[in-house]
Amino acid sequence: MKSVVLLSDARHPVSGRAVLSRLEAQAIGLGTALGGTLTGLHAGDCEDGVQESLGHGLSALDILSLPPEADPVSALTDFLKAQKADLILAGRRGEGGFDSGLLPYALAEALGLPILADAVALTPGEATDTLVVDQALAKGARRRVTVRLPALVTVHPLAPAPLPFAFGAMRRGTIRRHVAEAADASTDPVEERPYRARPKLMRTSSATASAENLHVGPEPEEAARLILDYLESNGIRRYG
Amino acid sequence: MTRPRIDPRASRTEQRVASGENGRRRYDLSSRTASNPIGPPRRDPRQEWAASLIDRPGRRRYDRSQRPVARGGASNVEAARVGSAAEAVSTEPTVRIIEEPAFLVFAFVDAPGGRLSRFDRQVLGGARLLADAGGGGGAVVAIVAEEIDGLGAAGADRVMSLPTNGSASARAAALRAAIETHAPRHVLFAEDGDAADCARRLSVALGEPLFSNVEHLTARQVVRPNRGRRAELAAAPPRLMTLGEDRAKMHAGAPGEARPLEFETAPSDDQAILSVEIIPGDPARLALSETDFVVSAGNGVTDFEGFRELAALMKGTPGASRVVCDAGLMPRGAQVGASGTVLAADCYFALGISGAPQHLQGIAACEQVIAVNTDLHAAMIERAGLAIVQDAQLVMPALIKLLKERQS
């Protein structure tokens, strides 16, 4: 199987230095466990962060040279059409650009591939050219989807931790540079300004201690009945 | 500086009131001027105190906790206790009915398990804010996949049910058809899970930009982070938006009517998806930060075999207080609180926990808390929605017995 991991130009949140995004390192871990050849693909002009991916288990890295403001979708589409990869992996939100998470969807649309979001585990399917993807849902549930390859899969932060970094492997890895045609990003009338952290809403409890829900010294059987009734009336759990 | 600076001289000049020829200069300091438009409204401290007065005979008591308490309900309880039940006024809130909406705002409600989460309520609250913008008259349409209770109270005027067969692309296609038919002014999603996935599919299918992960939402402006939180983008509210968690207030006003809005679509099928299977999470093996129901033991519990059996029977994830983890009776990974796990669960069941401040920090986000403790004056009893003053060691076997009876 031939897999490609999309890599973005992420920055460390504190130091601002170029680093490999953790989600993409986790995607490399998932792709490596699947077997076959796995290469990285980056469109941009900064190699410092993405070459760390070679130390996390990639054998080779393709870099499409593009100016930082260019729209990478058309260049990536042309390259991936030539590659004919079975599986394209990406973090669910790329970092460093618009951070909107739209690029995998735009790529899937351009390549005509199915896209599955928020994968935490990948296993080969029983039939050839199929893949079983476990998607993370709320409250620990998983959705197990069998998809016919080729497909595009984005990775959730709950996926297994990335493989440990090896400096020697990073030095030995191959970097192939390609010249790509830059397409202008659409200019939209959105004002950009320095980031200002805004407070989140406080998480206060809506339930207040009320006199009718305070029971002093009930019989244990009565207390047990009260607790189960409270859980069932609030829709937390159903028993029996 | 991102906010405009205030010019005090200009605003003073604008506040000047025209007076006679040789009269004194007079100013209207309460007027809002163009150069100082953001002055806070004046507070009326007497009115605030009067509002926090608890309606109870005898000594005057005030509730300054700033929690939304149903005062009408409280007074009704008191009136009933005194015996003048006939005078009790109905506190049933009047439902707001919008017959002919000027425009529509769609709110995508995921609600796994048919229960509205905090985040879903915040999305509905944000949609309500946008629907009331600019003179109001808009209606909030909740887009749901299954039947959900409490949508009206959360602020929905209409409910549109889009059937799902488990395929995300089919759901996005149905929503796209609904958007093309009804032409809503805004479509609001949660930046989480299936809602975020659907928003992006829709954005690509419609060819419209998506304003994702909104951190600041008002009727006039939305703001989102950009370039790894080194910059931010601000714009007037566009059509497609995803809202970040804890960024918009839940709806607290009059409930909407949640009238069903019929919409028929032909279900489409994704050829590449061969099978879909939902695997529910096993509460016993879930991480504390991921689970929705925690059964927790404190110093009042001595029988830990019984406690583990109870947690398994209640289908909850076992947790513990710091004292219990320090004593080695439960693993460190089960510790709840400031130095352990800060929970995001819906419900917390505390057995024999008095509620140290560090422990209460860990359960600040839990909506429902049940406490069993021998001390009436414990902080956990005050925090709980259902408080039982009884020995946890006596309640545990009774609970196990009752659960086994109900399951058989």
List strands and helices in order, with pairings.
The complex is a heterodimer of chains A (240) and B (408).
Chain A: E1 2-7, E2 10-11, E3 18-19, H1 22-34, E4 37-44, H2 52-55, E5 60-65, H3 73-83, E6 87-91, H4 103-111, E7 115-124, E8 130-136, E9 142-148, E10 151-155, H5 167-172, E11 174-179, E12 191-194, E13 214-216, H6 220-233
Parallel strand pairs in A: 1-4, 1-6, 4-5, 5-11, 6-10, 7-10
Antiparallel strand pairs in A: 2-3, 7-8, 8-9
Helix pairs in contact in A: 3-4
Chain B: H1 8-14, E1 16-17, E2 26-27, H2 45-51, E3 53-54, E4 61-62, H3 71-82, E5 104-108, H4 118-131, E6 139-144, E7 158-161, H5 168-182, E8 186-190, H6 193-206, E9 210-214, E10 216-217, E11 222-226, E12 231-235, E13 240-243, E14 259-260, E15 273-279, E16 293-297, H7 304-313, E17 317-320, H8 322-326, E18 347-351, H9 357-362, E19 368-373, H10 379-383, E20 386-389, H11 392-407
Parallel strand pairs in B: 5-6, 5-8, 6-7, 7-14, 8-13, 9-13, 16-17, 16-18, 18-19, 19-20
Antiparallel strand pairs in B: 1-2, 3-4, 10-11, 11-12
Descriptive report:
- The complex is a heterodimer of chains A (240) and B (408).
- Chain A contains six helices and 13 strands.
- By secondary structure, chain A is of the alpha/beta class.
- Chain A has two domains: 2-179, HUPs (Rossmann fold), CATH 3.40.50.620; 211-240, no CATH class.
- A nine-stranded mixed β-sheet of chain A has the order 9-8-7-10-6-1-4-5-11.
- In chain A, a hairpin with a 5-residue loop joins strand 7 (115-124) and strand 8.
- In chain A, helix 3 packs across helix 4 (103-111).
- Chain A is globular and about 75 Å long.
- Chain B is of the alpha/beta class and 408 residues long.
- Chain B contains eleven helices and 20 strands.
- Mean pLDDT of chain B is 85; it is low at 68-88.
- In chain B, the strands form five sheets. A seven-stranded parallel β-sheet of chain B has the order 9-13-8-5-6-7-14, sandwiched between helices. In chain B, strands 17-16-18-19-20 form a five-stranded parallel β-sheet.
- Helices cover 27% and strands 20% of the residues of chain B.
- Among the domains of chain B are: 104-260, Rossmann fold (3-Layer(aba) Sandwich); 293-407, Rossmann fold.
- The longest helix of chain B has 16 residues, at 392-407.
- Chain B starts with 7 loop residues before the first helix and ends with a helix.
- In chain B, a hairpin with a 4-residue loop joins strand 11 (222-226) and strand 12 (231-235).
- In chain B, helix 5 (168-182) crosses helix 6 and helix 7 (304-313) packs parallel to helix 11.
- Classes of the chains: A alpha/beta (240), B alpha/beta (408).
- Chains A and B meet through strand 2, helix 4, strand 7, strand 8 and strand 9 of A and helix 6, strand 9, strand 11, strand 12 and strand 15 of B.
- Strand 12 (191-194) of chain A pairs antiparallel with strand 12 (231-235) of chain B, so a sheet runs across the interface.
